[in-house]
Amino acid sequence: MKEVKVGIIGFGTVGAGVAANILKNGEVIAKRAGVKLTLTRIADLDTTTDRGVTIPQDILTTDAMALINEVDVVVELVGGTTFAKDFILEALKQGKPVVTANKALLAIHGKELFAAAEQSKADIYYEASVAGGIPVIKALREGLAANRINRIYGIMNGTCNYILTRMEREKMDFAPILQDAQDLGYAEAEPSLDVDGFDTAHKAAILASLAYGQWFGMDPIHVEGIRDISLVDLKFADELGYRVKLLAVIKQVDDDVQIRVHPTLVAKDTMLGNIADVFNGVMIDGDTVGETLFYGRGAGRDATASAVVADLVDVALNLKFGSHRRVPAFRIGPQYRHLVKIEEIETRYYIRLQVQDRAGVVAKIANILGDKNISISSFIQREAHDEQSVPLLILTHEAKEKQLFKAIEDLRKVEEISEEVKILRIEDI
Ligand code: HSE
What we know:
This protein is α/β, with parallel strands linked by helices. Helices cover 38% and strands 26% of the residues. Strands 7, 8, 9, 10, 11, 12, 13, 14, 15, 16, 17 and 18 form a 12-stranded mixed β-sheet that branches. It has a 6-stranded parallel β-sheet with strand order 3-2-1-4-5-6, with helices on both faces.
């Protein structure tokens, strides 16, 4: 049986999960695929900490560059965008395929890395980089190869989904839930990559590039996180039939593409609206297949290892049959689609205003919105009891973002309207 020597660089949580999976399921995988994955070398600066997986001690090394010489495929699990990039480029230079879970590296340096892969004729596989254990990359690259992709919606950050789910269920604000999530180990001590939306944006950059066959990179992606989501908005959203999700929106409108990440109102009676806790969900709408939904664990040792090892099987089969780029990931060439700036999009909006409960205020609001061609689809004002000011909720039909923000500027100038205006986008999925 063809044997493929696997080298892992980075023996952290995921590296240990990959080693454990190969040791546990190696025989089943070999029978299924007809190739044997042999754990040959593992490199890490720390070779002494017990990772809870029993491996032959002599396969551990601190020399990652030497590892690359000794194996058939390199699994990069060090993370970060510096050493990881050097290791991948060196492996590709030697014509060795790479498997990585490193979404930030791909999102930021993908163009250079995929060009290097193209030149070396060695593939980069990266299933674990988006939505952890959910095989969404393979689905998009192979399973949906017959389709033009109309839309992708992704709830792809477990930390944010966990926090939003608990805020909604326990009627608590963001800060104490984040603190609790950190104490429980669900959120990182430094949570900004997750809660400010960048982790989701990295994944969106990768999915968008796969869907549309060109490299968009990170710079033009509009990113907002969940720090400013308040309980009052979750309550109003609930009343209106929605939940707030940190959503990656990737869609083609005519010849343009939108890629954006922001808290979004998603209807409670949709499947995406029901993806809760740490789970991830990705909806892909293809012109031929229609809507498909992928659901599962987006992070964690074993879910991520599942994706890494699946890539290793693909690589092993490529090596066995002498093939590569069976399904090209990206077309590295001239850009042919315009990436729409956030000001240019048209979508529906949730607007929360705090207003003085006086005669004529609603008329002023309606006039300002009407002037900017913004049509109201729903309007809620609670009766004021003792309070001088009351929250006022407006949902709009599709409107131009540029017009919406001009209207908000005008609304803020109205004496009876407080400066604090909350805007959330709505996606009808
Ligand atoms: N930190 C991510 C999450 C997983 O919370 O989903 C890795 O991208």
